[in-house]
Write a structure and sequence with these properties.
This protein is mostly helical. It is built from 14 helices and two strands; from the N terminus they run ββαααααααααααααα. It has a two-stranded antiparallel sheet. A hairpin with a 2-residue loop joins β1 and β2. It is globular. The protein binds heme C (5 copies).
């Protein structure tokens, strides 16, 4: 996932367009340039969704990391000619589109392998494949393009919207489990962030490299837990979280005694 080349991470200009400040970053993709430039003339043809989508993209880690429109939609990103750019582009309503509900996991999964691998084991994915639209797809929780991360409370609300009391798929324990798990993930992450801040200030290069290595070791089980969480069965995650916590505390001790 981190192998995506960031070609020009600097801010080129700040343009006021259509009422919001657009941070135009250097992108290798022409798609967004034209869509942002034409949003007003094209607005009558575009739904409110498309305009919001453009803005969500603009402020997302995807935009910052050069994940252009074509990475999800297809098309040719190397031209300013609309007809050429849109060749092989399908509207999202087409089941064959890479951004249709059923194809989205695979499309996102080309970059986010860890979550995709676990998602494929879930009952939710089986529902999608069978053409049953009652379950979630990636965008249900992360947005279509914004790459939002959910707080423990918003995740548990998300589960409850389908599994809460009185709902058709009532499984009341699921939301609580999800909230507990995510709270723990957040706690360990917060400790890791503290450790990182200390490590950054270490002047001795060899010592810093040693701690950075230990940091990565502590981070592994927490990344694994977040990925494995995409099966939405949490029973087998506790072991990973315990390991992450132990390693993180060992790192904090070592940093305190350096
Ligand atoms: C030169 C301008 C231009 C470029 C370049 C461009 N688009 Fe568009 N795009 C438009 C306009 C204008 C619309 C509104 C509908 C129309 O006029 O065809 C549109 C519509 C769309 C739609 C809505 C689907 C549809 O059929 O209406 C999608 C999705 C889309 N573009 C994606 C892309 C992607 C992905 C790229 C790059 C590979 C791209 N566009 C490049 C101008 C452009
Ligand atoms: C991370 C993946 C992703 C990226 C990047 C992305 N989109 Fe989308 N896009 C989606 C998804 C998902 C939908 C919603 C599909 C649905 O309706 O369920 C969508 C829907 C749309 C639609 C309305 C549906 C249609 O096809 O008519 C337009 C227009 C559109 N995107 C344009 C763009 C443009 C322009 C960019 C770049 C600025 C972009 N998208 C970047 C995933 C993405
Ligand atoms: C072409 C590769 C690519 C595609 C396709 C893609 N992403 Fe991303 N995504 C990235 C990169 C690069 C980042 C930013 C770096 C990072 O956080 O690892 C990112 C960040 C994210 C984050 C935030 C991660 C964090 O820790 O802050 C989420 C959530 C996310 N993407 C979800 C999605 C979803 C959902 C889709 C499909 C609708 C999608 N991505 C499609 C490359 C991609
Ligand atoms: C029911 C809600 C839900 C669905 C559906 C979902 N996710 Fe997530 N996702 C989460 C939660 C919760 C986290 C953990 C957030 C955190 O770490 O703060 C997460 C984390 C992530 C991350 C960042 C952490 C990492 O492992 O790098 C990415 C990327 C991601 N999801 C991608 C996806 C993709 C791709 C799909 C579809 C295949 C998907 N998610 C479906 C809830 C969901
Ligand atoms: C958009 C609606 C929706 C959301 C959001 C959702 N689910 Fe589901 N889920 C479903 C449906 C529908 C089924 C299939 C029920 C069936 O097969 O009877 C399902 C099945 C499951 C199953 C497999 C059946 C079982 O109980 O063993 C689990 C586990 C599950 N969901 C957990 C979760 C968790 C945890 C969350 C929140 C992180 C969540 N779901 C969010 C709709 C949803």
């Amino acid at each position: 996932m981190r192998s995506v080349v960031v070609r020009a991470p600097f801010l080129l200009a700040l343009v006021i367009l259509g009422g919001w400040a657009v941070s135009v970053q250097a992108q290798s993709s022409r798609c967004a340039d034209c869509h942002i430039a034409n949003q007003q003339s094209a607005a009558p043809n575009w739904s409110g969704f498309a305009l919001r989508h453009l803005q969500d993209w603009d402020f997302s880690p995807h935009s910052r990391n050069n994940v252009g429109c074509e990475k999800c939609h297809g098309g040719n990103p190397n031209t300013f000619e609309k007809f050429q750019a849109h060749q092989n582009l399908l509207p999202a309503s087409s089941p064959a589109s890479p951004v249709s509900r059923v194809n989205l996991p695979k499309t996102c999964g080309t970059c986010h392998t860890g979550p995709f691998v676990s998602f494929q084991k879930s009952q939710h994915y089986k529902l999608l494949l069978s053409g049953d639209d009652r379950g979630p797809t990636c965008s249900t929780c992360h947005g279509e393009v914004g790459a939002h991360l959910l707080s423990p409370a918003s995740l548990s609300r998300q589960c409850s919207s389908c599994h809460g009391p009185g709902r058709e798929q009532e499984r009341t324990g699921r939301a609580d489990e999800a909230r507990m798990l995510m709270t723990e993930v957040r706690e360990v992450r917060a400790r890791l962030n503290q450790a990182q801040a200390i490590i950054r200030r270490i002047k001795d290069q060899a010592l810093r490299a040693k701690f950075e290595d230990q940091y990565r070791q502590a981070e592994v089980p927490i990344i694994e837990a977040a990925n494995a969480g995409h099966e939405f069965v949490f029973d087998n995650l506790q072991e990973r979280l315990d390991r992450a916590r132990q390693r993180t505390e060992a790192l904090m001790d070592a940093l305190a005694n350096q």
